[in-house]
Amino acid sequence: MSLLSPVTRSLLLANARQSRAWPGFDPRPLVRLVERGGPARWLCTELSADGCWLYGLADTGSGSPEPGYFSLSDVSAFGSDVGARVVRDLRFFSPHRLSAWCAAARLTRSLDGAQKLLERLAGELGLARGVASPAGASPAGACPVGYLQLSRLRE
After folding, report:
1. Of the candidates 65, 63, 64, 62, which has an alpha carbon nearest to the alpha carbon of residue 32?
2. Phi/psi class of residue 141: alpha, beta or left (left: φ > 0; alpha: ψ in -120 to 50)?
3. Tens place of pLDDT for every residue, the chain, 155 residues?
4. HSE of 141 in the Cβ direction (CA atoms, 13 Å)?
5. Where are the domains of the chain?
6. Collapsed DSSP state (helix, strand, coil) of residue 45
7. CB 3.0–4.6 Å: which of 42, 101, 136, 149 could bond 33 by disulfide?
8. Cβ distance 108 to 121 under 8 Å?
9. Are 59 and 39 in contact (CB under 8 A)?
10. Model pTM?
């Protein structure tokens, strides 16, 4: 079974085209891949034209999530040597842009920690939480949480 449906591939490809056309483009992650039973997580915003490379934020459980490109085939095979499997989180939805995820991941040193931090901040600021909706649409009132709000948590 493929990690990406045809519709998801189309959306990720559209994000890649938009990113090339507008260098300041800061999309919301569309896909969350997780290592079942393990710490590895990937948030994906773009797919290369050849369908081989994803762009987003990768956290292999080492304590230092990194934005960048990663191979779809490598992600698919990740953990298979120890019986782990990478699956797509079908309930994932994020109202937060990739830059907010990167800032939160730097502070918390993991994507799971970043998710908790972003949800907490969204709650404190009265913003919608990143939960799945049946139609896959953005929750009403969703708004990205920027780096300035995240940086005040260091105090």
Report:
1. 65
2. left
3. 589 999 999 999 999 999 999 989 999 999 999 999 889 999 999 999 999 999 999 999 899 999 999 999 999 988 766 666 899 999 999 999 999 999 999 999 999 999 999 999 988 887 655 444 333 333 333 333 343 344 444 33
4. 8
5. 6-154
6. strand
7. 42
8. no
9. yes
10. 0.79
